[in-house]
Design a protein that fits this description.
Blueprint lengths: L3 H14 L10 H8 L3 H13 L3 E4 L3 E4 L1 H23 L9 H7 L5 H10 L25 E2 L6 E8 L4 H10 L6 E8 L4 E5 L7 E4 H4 L2 E4 L2
Helix pairs in contact: 1-2, 1-4, 2-3, 4-5, 4-6
The structure holds zinc ion.
Amino acid sequence: MPTSTVENYLKAIWSLQGQREGDYLVPVGQVAEKIAVTPGTATTMMNQLLKKGLVAYTPRKGVRLSEAGRKAALLVLRRHRLVEAFLVEVMKLDWAEVHEDAEVLEHVISDRLLARMDEMLNHPTHDPHGAPIPNAEGELTPDGTAVLADCSAGDYTLQRVQEHPPSFLQWLAELGLMPGTGLTVTHRNLEAGTLTLKLPNRADPVQISLLAARSLLVVLP
Ligand SMILES: [Zn+2]
């Protein structure tokens, strides 16, 4: 089983690769920045990951996950998201306060406990922040979402919150903006960097920054 350090590198490369397929290489400097280590430390790790067959790595060009690396990254993500769902649904913790615990537990939880959690939750497809949970084979079905900041005027349903610092999630909850909430974009002001929204339980329109809206993923209702 990979160490938690290896798992965090795989997760970082996976998120930096994003939707880009094919032979796109993530600069190792970006990986170092994401994990908060020096470029030298990250480069040493790239060689180790390469030896384990988890990445394709070309010095001075960058790195991408191999099939085995991608599967390992998605299985960490599965543990993270199932743990978050368990902490909220079963242990009744607030959705704003489960991420940090999940960051720790994702590396230590046994397959047996995870399978039991999955069963107790009745095999959830999404975590409390609306992110899809990869299946036990390490496969992830894309959910066809768009970034709210890029959306023009119209009706949408909030599907997922991408970044989840507690204060940001608490603010969203106060607005009543949770996964599953319907919303209307009434105005997108690129000069001011704001988005005006009509929310179901608010009489007055609400303005949020385009920066905040970058973390919100929506689908058409
Ligand atoms: Zn999380």
